[in-house]
Design brief:
heterodimer; A: alpha+beta; 8-stranded mixed β-sheet; B: 10-stranded antiparallel β-sheet; 2 helices; globular
């Protein structure tokens, strides 16, 4: 057995390049898996941080006279039994001039489920409370503090004014540019004395404001909510697809390595090695290589992630507990997943070869024609299998169409898997068909005819690589479009929801007065008052008739003005956008996509809405996308909502003229209406930070998607290179017959380049189908609304060019060798035939 | 009581200090480290000494140069229907660092961590709440508004937020005999708490040697005195329902920098009101006693026991390890562990042999460091005749 094994391995001693390629394939496939894990972790982190940014999660008390609180007042509130906590907030400037927000918290009284109180650090609590105290900071804030990631823990950076921060502790959950520390340490840095900036409480724990104080309820400015969940789901899909790509690449690499040793296997059998020992030896070899490749891949995947993206390590840290940064202390499912990629691929690739090795015909030596007829049978099987997968995909799609939205997630994933499988299976028969047609067309041009016949002969060896290429390209395109599309959607969503640069948050009863007051201010360009109310959707009248429903829905009032209407996306209208907005101002309603899908409504239908003291039947003028909202919503003009349903105001957006003085306006507002200091919030800043956080995730996603493409290219390159050696054998006779070398070289390049081009072209519609499956099937199945389908032609062109480029490069190397070969060597090849 | 409390308090505080923010699963682990921590080196702190003299009313205030301290009240009450009701209110203090390492008293800087517990128990109901606070011992302390938590000796006022024990309106300055206790937690229907008037019907009792209570055979201990003669009247709110209550209470005051021997693992502590007017305090620290060389050599022989026998006039007789025999008779499964909820307590020198039983085993305190604290009924061992009532605390199980 040992001798058989060593004989098998001796092949690699003579061809170390093949061993390297094989291990490379295994290595990169599992590295890809690691990378996807890392990006999922980063994405999760991004959501949490964005949510923290959008949702302050705390009710806030302020003095009516606008003066700061003192410690004694805080103590008095505690002693009156109010569950409040003090907070200090201020700015500090780093040595490079960046302004950071410093927040001082009192952890003994701050509800421990608050983001600020959650450190995600393992540091001890008394270290936080006692000198020298601690500074909690997110890893991406380290750069402006001038601290390297490796030395971050315990570092004490100096600020621009010469003050020294308490030792740093990494807390990945914090928003960027934010420092959190104990209130005593913050008071020293901010020199705030006995004053404090906020008195806060967990939402809902205070029933009313104590005398002399105003209570500002925790405001959810706009939470991405389900939008981020959707992105996460899509990333999970990306992880699964990357896994499938990895499997194919491993299979391609191994299949070729074993294919090339068929001759040696036959020799071993002829020498008396039993079929069983041969299979056993091969299995051992597969297992060994698989383990090496997988472990190396997982380890380097983490290394890669950490090198390229320093935040990822910290994120893994916070998700999986301490130690990832230093040693690979990842959860078991991470390793299992990585091993499953490699070993699964080995099993797939290996089983075919093992099966062939077991029933190896010792006498069947070099019978190309016989093999070809065997391949024909295989093509037929592939066509049938492909057809089955297609019908499976169609059946799933048909079934999904009749499912209520929010159901059928598994079927959605099944649909995409069936699509991929069907396309991969149909690729070799399709290529064979094209070759046959081309060969027929070129029957009067012998050289091209030969080239086609030669390709048909090469196809069995090439088909696995091409299938891998097809899947990798399609997945790459699909994921690229999905991520890119998601990014655009997110930005649109931010624009839609945060349309006004400034938002005013005031007690409900004051809005009417404030609105009237603002109407006379010259610097105010537009006031966007929103209103909210709940109602019951009593009945719907569609062309098919009238239905009674009784669904609870949300009424939302917006002010259709110059600032808002251009940014508010509409999915379907009765006639066109402008007439829809005109109808809207006159009392027609818009409904969100969730409601339209759930109740099967279209523009032009009538809805009867019922609220206490009001019953109105209104026309649907348009349907709008409402990403991230789990429930049905009816949109109408704020004035209409107030008149018909008596809905209270909920917030006011302010669009100011370009030269407006924001501070002066705020001061005037506060003086006139007794508002808190943060009654006006600057949404541009929130938008900028939210975008920044998400852009980071998008960048990482794109980087890993690029890696997928690189892996696919590498797999294609290695498999083509592996079989290039035999090319000289086939080209030599043609040269001997008088075909010039230039022409032969061109022919060789055209053969592979053409195949790759056809595969790449096929990958484009498949990639679009996958994107569509992700945004329009899986997302609808999961959440009841679809993401818009965006296509990026430039990315497609790059992907296609890469595929063809790699194929040409792989063909060029043997071609070059053929070009340089001496006539004697070529004649020797001929003699070998 | 004192030592069990101190153990538990130390435990609670040290757990809080080291593991705040960690998941629940860490707590059991924390427990053991907490108990071990009670016996750790206490350099830099003041230490309780047998020679110390207690001066009142100053001693009612905090002793920030010592590591730990508490104001600990338990009460055995009855509502208007005669249904028994138990309650507990405790204020714990722990120094965050030895006096020499204190930070400057800048605003918000803290050298003392405070924790308060309250519990109300009636039949199967047991409601528990917990609060935390901070203070600096060098901050001026003239009114409660000067600090989130603190204790002023005269007129007496101990508070953490709105949980307060203080001299009532009629009391003269320095009077410790007329106190008001208020503490409430929760909102609306889940609101619970109490407003009680406490009247002392006897003198303060100093435990051990003039207030120095030894806690291990090697001589370490704490300063410990009690007011066991409270007559209590007031109102208790539980499940949003307010009841008029009355009964007896016991207040413990204890401070120390090192209470336990490193080998001691936990304690069982009893405070008992006998119907004939006698009061009895008895505790055992499991491990750390003098018995390692005994012929029996069992673990029980290594326990350290102590107590005080108090006459209705307030005359105190200290009890040593050999005076007290404590035997667990039956255990109950509580919060995933077995706790002895029935005991035999023998003190031959005063001719008592008691059967002490917790009528309700579910008195588990689900605080940041969990422990058992609940009402007990006391019967004569031989005749079964009811003799009194009291409180039992058990830690380290």
């Amino acid at each position: 057995m040992i001798r058989v094994l060593s004989t098998l391995f001796s092949h690699y001693r003579r061809h170390p390049g093949q061993l390297i390629m094989l291990l490379l394939g295994l290595w990169v496939a599992s590295a890809l898996w690691s990378g996807i894990q890392a990006i999922n972790a980063t994405a999760r982190d991004s959501y949490a941080r964005t949510d923290a940014l959008f949702d302050t999660q705390l009710d806030q008390l302020e003095r009516r006279d606008g003066m700061p609180f003192s410690r004694a007042e805080y103590h008095a509130l505690r002693q009156a039994g109010l569950p409040v906590s003090p907070m200090l907030e201020g700015d500090v400037v780093t040595q490079d001039g960046t302004r950071l927000t410093l927040i001082g918290i009192e952890p003994l009284t701050l509800s421990s489920d608050n983001t600020l109180a959650q450190a995600n650090t393992s540091a001890s609590f008394s270290d936080f409370l006692t000198p020298p105290w601690q500074t909690r900071v997110a890893p991406d804030t380290l750069a402006v503090l001038g601290v390297a990631r490796e030395n971050a823990s315990g570092a004490t950076p100096t600020l621009a004014d010469g003050k020294v921060l308490p030792p740093l502790v990494l807390a990945p959950a914090l928003p960027p540019d934010t420092l959190v520390m104990d209130i005593a340490a913050a008071a020293r840095l901010l020199e705030s004395g006995d004053q404090l900036t906020h008195i806060v409480a967990s939402p809902g724990t205070l029933t009313e404001a104590p005398p002399g104080l105003t209570l500002t309820r925790a405001a959810t400015l706009a939470s991405p909510g389900q939008l981020t969940e959707s992105f996460h789901l899509n990333l999970t899909a990306l992880g699964l697809l990357a896994w499938v790509v990895g499997l194919f690449i491993v299979q391609a690499a191994l299949g070729l390595a074993l294919e090339q040793r068929l001759g040696m296997l036959r020799t071993l059998r002829v020498l008396g090695v039993s079929g069983r020992s041969l299979v056993l030896a091969l299995s051992l070899e597969l297992l060994l290589l698989g383990l090496i490749g997988a472990l190396a891949g997982i380890a380097s995947g983490v290394w890669l992630a950490r090198t390229l993206l320093p935040d990822v390590a910290a994120t893994l840290n916070s998700l999986y507990g301490a130690g990832v940064g230093q040693e690979l202390n990842l959860p078991w499912h991470y390793w299992v997943g990585g091993l499953a990629v490699s070993l699964g691929g080995l099993l797939l690739a290996g089983s075919g070869v093992l099966w062939r090795a077991a029933r190896l015909n010792m006498l069947e030596l070099g019978q190309m024609q016989a093999w070809r007829s065997g391949y024909r049978r295989q093509l037929t099987l592939m066509s049938i299998g492909g057809a089955l997968a297609w019908s499976c995909a169609l059946a799933l799609y048909g079934w999904l169409r009749f499912q209520p939205p929010g159901d059928g997630l598994v079927a959605g994933f099944g649909l995409i898997a069936a699509l991929l499988l069907a396309s991969a299976l149909w690729l070799p028969p399709f290529l064979a068909l094209i070759l046959k047609v081309l060969a027929h067309l070129a029957r009067r041009r012998p050289l091209i005819h030969w080239a086609m016949a030669d390709m048909q002969l090469q196809l069995p060896r090439l088909s696995l690589a091409m299938m891998a290429l097809l899947i990798a390209l399609a997945t790459n395109l699909g994921v690229g479009s999905m991520v890119g599309g998601f990014r655009l959607t997110f930005l649109d969503w931010l624009d839609q929801r945060l349309v006004a640069p400034l938002y005013l948050n005031a007690p409900t009863e004051q809005y009417a007065d404030i609105d009237a007051w603002l109407a006379d201010r010259p610097e105010v360009f537009e006031r966007l008052l929103t209103r909210r109310s709940d109602a019951t959707l009593q009945a719907a009248t569609t062309p098919e008739g009238s239905r009674s429903l009784g669904t609870p829905i949300e009424l939302y009032g917006i002010t259709p003005g110059e600032s808002l209407t251009p940014h508010w996306p509409l999915l379907a209208t009765q006639q066109d956008r402008s007439s829809a907005w005109v109808a809207f101002s006159d009392g027609a309603i818009f409904i969100n996509e969730q409601l339209a899908t759930a109740e099967n409504l279209s523009p032009g239908d009538l809805l009867t809405l019922n609220a206490p003291g009001a019953n109105e039947t209104l026309t649907i003028a348009a349907i709008y996308p409402d990403y991230g909202n789990p429930s049905g919503q009816v949109l109408m003009a704020s004035t209409q909502l107030a008149a018909r349903f008596n809905a209270p105001p909920s917030s006011m957006g302010l669009v100011l003229n370009d030269d407006a003085n924001v501070d002066a306006l705020l001061a005037a507002l506060r003086e006139r209406f007794d508002l808190g200091s943060d009654a006006l919030s600057d949404q541009r800043e929130i938008k900028r930070i939210a975008t920044e956080i998400f852009e980071r995730t998008f960048t990482i996603t794109r980087a890993l998607n690029g890696l997928t493409l690189a892996v696919a290219a590498l797999a294609l390159f290695t498999s083509l290179l592996a079989q290039a050696r035999s090319r000289r054998q086939q080209l030599a006779p043609l040269w001997a017959l008088g075909v010039p070398r230039t022409q032969l070289a061109q022919l060789n390049l055209a053969q592979l380049g053409g195949t790759a081009l056809v595969t790449g072209l096929l990958a484009i519609p498949l990639g679009i189908a996958i994107t569509w499956g992700l945004v329009a099937v899986i997302n609808v199945a999961a959440f009841g609304w679809r993401l818009p389908l965006y296509l990026f032609p430039w990315e497609m062109a790059v992907t296609l060019t890469t595929a063809v480029g790699v194929a040409l490069l792989a063909a060029a190397l043997p071609t070059l060798r053929f070009w340089r070969a001496s006539p004697r060597a070529l004649l020797a090849e001929e003699a070998n035939q | 009581m004192s030592l069990r409390r101190c153990l538990r308090a130390y435990l609670l505080l040290s757990v809080l200090l080291t593991l705040y923010g960690c998941g629940e699963e860490n707590q059991s682990e924390t427990n053991s480290t907490g108990f071990a921590g009670l016996g750790q080196d206490a350099d830099g702190f003041e230490h309780a000494q047998p020679s110390q003299t207690l001066n009142f009313p100053q001693e009612h205030a905090a002793h920030p140069d010592y590591r730990i301290e508490w104001w600990y009240l338990t009460a055995n009450l009855e509502d208007a229907d005669g249904e028994p009701l138990g309650l507990q209110w405790t204020l714990f203090r722990q120094a965050l660092m030895p006096p020499s390492e204190r930070p400057e008293p800048t605003p918000w800087a803290a050298d003392q961590l405070w924790m308060a517990h309250m519990a109300i128990s009636q039949s199967e109901q047991h409601q528990v709440a917990e609060r935390f606070g901070r203070s600096h011992s060098q901050d001026p302390l003239n009114t409660p508004q000067d600090s989130q938590a603190g204790v002023i000796s005269s007129p007496f006022h101990a508070w953490l937020d709105d949980w307060q024990l203080k001299a009532n309106e009629e009391a003269n300055s320095g009077d410790f005999s007329h106190l008001t206790l208020t503490a409430y937690s929760g909102e609306d229907e889940s609101r619970f708490g109490y407003t009680l008037e406490l009247t002392a019907e006897g003198p303060l009792v100093l435990h051990g040697k003039e207030g120095f209570s030894q806690k291990a055979a090697n001589g370490q201990g704490s300063m410990y005195y009690s007011q066991p003669f409270w007559q209590i009247n007031g109102e208790v709110t539980i499940n949003g329902e307010t009841k008029t209550v009355s009964g007896r209470g016991w207040l413990d005051r204890e401070w120390s920098s090192q209470l336990l021997d490193a080998r001691q693992s936990g304690w069982d502590w009893f405070s008992i009101h006998l119907d004939d007017g006698h009061k009895l305090m008895a505790f055992q620290l499991r491990g750390g006693g003098n018995g390692s060389g005994d012929s029996a050599g069992t673990e029980h022989n290594a326990d350290y026991r102590s107590g005080t026998w108090i006459t209705p006039q307030g005359d105190a007789t200290p009890l040593a390890t050999d005076d007290i025999t404590l035997t667990p008779l039956a255990t109950s499964a509580v919060a995933g562990r077995d706790l002895p909820t029935q005991w035999r307590l023998e003190i031959p020198s005063v001719e008592i042999d008691l059967n002490i039983e917790a009528p309700h085993a579910n008195r588990w305190m689900t605080t940041s460091v969990p422990y058992w604290e609940g009402e007990v009924v006391v019967n004569d061992r031989a005749s079964g005749e009811p003799l009194g009532e009291g409180y039992l605390e058990m830690t380290g199980y």
